[in-house]
């Protein structure tokens, strides 16, 4: 797999993202007691770390099974989807620009493993839309039911509304794709729209997709609560679950340094104080959450590259 020289615009985006990530790190560290942070991280039990990783592997398996439900036929094995999804997440984690997961996952399934491109694209978009709708719903309901000690700013609710609107627009366009003028000329949109319409006609399958989505985020919430217990932070399980969703949603959306440094830590120090958590404990939570949630996919991505190869096969591999 060969990479060409990046365009000037790409370089500008990478440098800009790195600058944003560095600014986030400076911001979160400006008032932190470094010795207290080191002590807090040093006291985190190794057993808790293993439990968190095991729970995340369970969550990843549920996520892969959910993805398989979005293929009407010729379903990839769950194990393959697990590796492909985590490889995409791993690529996305080390990239300053958070837009590489889906192209990598599409490359593996549609180009290397030769599944139908329209079906793969539809499944990827569906996964993101379902995740967005359910996580936003959980965050909004969680903030309303498990009230923080300080009011959530209006711009946070505005952001939730904007992302929800984007999800609704994507759903509408996807259901009508192939029927709208000009889109009917794009052949791959036939399979893409068929997947959406097929799912819309099957409420049972749609319920299974929503249920597995809620389940995988529930398992991740349990993993985050193990982190809270290991750091001796005074938060309940429901509060931890809501905060984990808010931190990961914001942290994985914002640009940052390679490996995602900056945005997740910023998101943790932004949201946790609303529930009475101090700056040092908030940053400690963000660092442990970051390491445990993102480093395993990075390791899987490296292993996949070494064993399978890149997502875009060479002409020789494609003809094999």
Structure in words:
Helix content is 73%, strand content 0%. The protein is globular and about 55 Å long. The protein has 320 residues and is mainly alpha-helical. The chain has helices at 8-29, 34-42, 46-68, 78-94, 101-112, 117-145, 154-176, 188-200, 203-230, 237-251, 263-271, 279-307, 315-319.
For the largest beta-sheet, the strand count, sense and barrel status come to: none
Shape category = globular
Tell me the number of structural domains.
Answer: 1
Average pLDDT across residues? 85
Order of helices and strands: HHHHHHHHHHHHH
Structural class: mainly alpha
What is the topological layout?
Elements: H1 8-29, H2 34-42, H3 46-68, H4 78-94, H5 101-112, H6 117-145, H7 154-176, H8 188-200, H9 203-230, H10 237-251, H11 263-271, H12 279-307, H13 315-319
